[in-house]
Amino acid sequence: MTRVFWGLLVGFIPVSVFSQPSFPKNYPVGYFRNPLNIPISLAANFGELRTDHYHMGLDIRTLGNLPVYAAGEGYIARVSVQPFGFGQAIYINHPNGYTTVYGHLNAFFPALANYIKKQQYAKQTWQIALDLPPDLFVVKKGQLIAYSGNTGGSQGPHLHFEIRRTADEINLNPMLFGLPISDNTAPAIQRLAIYDGSKSVYEQSPQLLSVKKIGASYSVMKDTIVLNTPRAGFAITAFDTQSGSTNPNGIYQADLYDGNQWVIGFQMDAISYDNARGINAHIDYKTKTRGGPWLQQLFRLPGYTNSIYRSFKGNGNIDLSDGLVHALRIEVKDAYGNAAGLNFKVLYKENNQSIRQMSGKVFYPLMLDVFEQHDCAFYLGEKSLYDSVHINYSKSPSFPKDISAVHSIGTDFIPINEPMLVRIRLIRDLPIVKKDKVLMQRFLKSTKEVSKVEWQGGWASARFRQFGNFQLILDEVAPVISAIGFTEGGNLKKANRIVILVKDDHEIIKHFRALLDGHWIRFTNDKQKSFIYTFDEHCAAGSHELSITAEDEAGNVATRIFHFTR
Questions:
Q1: Which residues of the chain register pLDDT less than 50?
Q2: How far, CA to CA in Å, does 71 sit from each of 44, 100, 152?
Q3: 35, 203, 275, 420: which has the fewest Cβ within 10 Å?
Q4: Which residue intervals of the chain bear CATH 2.60.40.10?
Q5: CB count, 10 Å around CB of 547?
Q6: d(Cα 405, Cα 242) in Å, to the nearest integer?
């Protein structure tokens, strides 16, 4: 049975005796239609937890390439084509002040596809973002606009669908707009985590407790949980499902109560892409990074600005210093009001345990700070950290061919929001021409990334969004260009495309350019796996020369010429 969540128009209808906050909304329920002509089956919902970001829309299963229709009347205001992200995407502005977004498309409708192709040739770039005038592509509700696919940062065929406020581009939860989504199932709660509210979240490991379901509610295995901290924070692992599906989607809302008093809660309702990385302050990042479960915190870290939390007072930690038993409840809801509750009791008893002394310099959120040595320095801005934490530094000896030492900064379980500036000095002089080929490399375990440095005096600088090991490296090796499926001078009369593969030591191709008989030709590069030109009117019958140029992050350039007959 499809349920329309009309209760959101006036606030939340209480499902318990607990006093709770009201978050009134006034969304146009029923205005938008299903963008597909099949029942909506969700592979992911709004606010679902992802690496480094909240999921900002609905992922609707397609199982292939299906027609995609405008969810409402309006005009196509923007289109984009990129190797990752949304791949091929359409943005429609509607007269009611909202924008719908359709991502991972396989193809645009013919008139739009032809327009984009002309713009790509005019600008000589396949990757493109175009803002379109209101009168160019006016669409009606239910009009065919594209075909679904798997382009960009997609792992399988589906349609990514978003609803945004046009004025400020804040993403809103599409499940609050009355789309025909069947959901009569309550969220499930899997575990409870307890934290010492007097310590940094990165300098402790939570107490994890399993929960059991009794009827419609959940409880822990202990009658009363005895804690050795007078201030406690709590987190949960929970998921939601859609009727008829076992796919674990994200939860919409969770609230913490102390007795009958609401303390803190969050909603996956309105999130900006500018704040999507805030998920790293919402989850227990340390536990997840170490291979543990997703834990959604019901306390707010001091550096999480523009957060998804609302609170009665404070940051959500419970004051247990009175030594009394506190009856706590966590209530979890989905966007349709289906609810599940976890009941448990906690008690503080003082325990004169030894305090662990942490090494390293303490850095604080909402403060600009710096660490400097004679050959390495790093700077953390006001928005870099979510919680206070000790950050360690060490240096490893260099090898004879190295141009800098290896500098170890922090650890991977401390997230960074605003990029950190790292500065390193060379250990030996380089000619100016070689200094232009210097990259800074960050590596940790099996991951590596490089960035072109900027020079200031004797310092090489670059910015990164993760801690790890940092070193300057010299890259003088150009990319390698090869053709797949044909040889020099080959006959391609029966072929329908040309595939070019470009490899580089550091896996970054900064620029790619292809000329056919001296004229720019459009090669696609979905997911940056290979460059593909599909034969069209720009390649007539006869003999041709194809020139491919590729440039890596360090500025090394490779060019290769191919000849073929078409």
A1: 1-17, 19
A2: 19, 7, 22
A3: 203
A4: 480-565
A5: 15
A6: 53
Residues in the chain, overall count = 566
- In the structure encoding, which two tokens stand for residue 55, read together? 């999921």
Transcribe 432-453 into DSSP letters: HHHHTTEEEEEEETTEEEEEE-
DSSP 86: T
Question: Facing residues of 147 across strands?
Answer: 67, 107
Q: 188 pairs with which residues across the strands?
A: 239
State the span(s) of the chain assigned CATH 2.60.220.30: 361-474
pLDDT score recorded for residue 16: 43
**Do strands 339-348 and 217-220 pair parallel, antiparallel, or not at all (unpaired)?**
parallel
The DSSP output letter for 278 is G
pLDDT at 210: 95
* 386 in Cβ contact with 356 (< 8 Å): no
pLDDT over 70 for what percent of the chain?
96
Q: How far apart are CA 504 and CA 294, in angstroms?
A: 35
Q: What separation in angstroms does the CA of 560 have from each of 14, 501, 546, 557?
A: 68, 12, 8, 10
379/387 Cα distance (integer angstroms): 16
**Neighbour count for residue 223 (Cβ, 10 Å):** 9
In the Cβ-directed half-sphere of 175, how many Cα atoms lie within 13 Å?
A: 32
Torsion of CA 267, 273, 278, 282, to 10 degrees: 30
Strand pairing category for 144-148 and 138-139: unpaired
Per DSSP bridges, beta strands 53-54 and 144-148 are: unpaired
For 118-162, the DSSP string reads HHHHHHT-SSEEEE--TTTSEE-TT-EEEEEB--SS-SSSEEEEE
Q: How far apart are CA 19 and CA 47, in angstroms?
A: 25
Architecture of domain 32-176: Distorted Sandwich (2.70)
526-560 per-position pLDDT tens digit: 999 899 999 999 999 999 999 999 999 999 999 99
Per DSSP, helices labelled H in 352-461 are 432-435
Counting beta carbons within 10 angstroms of the beta carbon of residue 488, is it exposed (0 to 12), middle (13 to 18) or buried (19 or more)?
A: exposed
Check residue 5 and give its pLDDT: 35
280 sits in which H/E element: helix 279-282
User: What are the percentages of helix, strand and coil residues in the chain, rounded to 5?
Assistant: 10, 45, 50
Q: Domain 480-565, what fold?
A: Immunoglobulin-like (2.60.40)
The whole-angstrom separation of Cα 138 and Cα 132 is 11
Q: With the C-alpha atoms ordered 50, 54, 60, 62, is the resulting torsion angle positive or negative?
A: negative
> Where in the sequence of the chain do the CATH 2.70.70.10 domains occur?
32-176
Tally: H helices and E strands in the chain: 4, 46
513 touches 525 (CB < 8 A)? no
User: Contact at 8 Å (CB) between 75 and 143?
Assistant: no
Q: Does domain 361-474 have CATH number 1.10.3730.10?
A: no
Beta bridge partners of residue 64, listed in sequence order: none
Q: Which value, to the nearest 10 degrees, does the dihedral of the CA atoms of residues 521, 524, 530, 533 take?
A: -40
